[in-house]
Amino acid sequence: MKKFTLAFFFFSMFFATPIVAQDYELRFDIVNKTEINLYGIYVTDVNTGGWGNDIIPNDMFEHDTVVTVSIDVDNNTLCEYDIRITDDSEDSVEFSDVDFCELETLTLLMDNNGDLYYTVE
Question: Signal sequence span per UniProt (predicted)?
Answer without folding.
Answer: 1-21
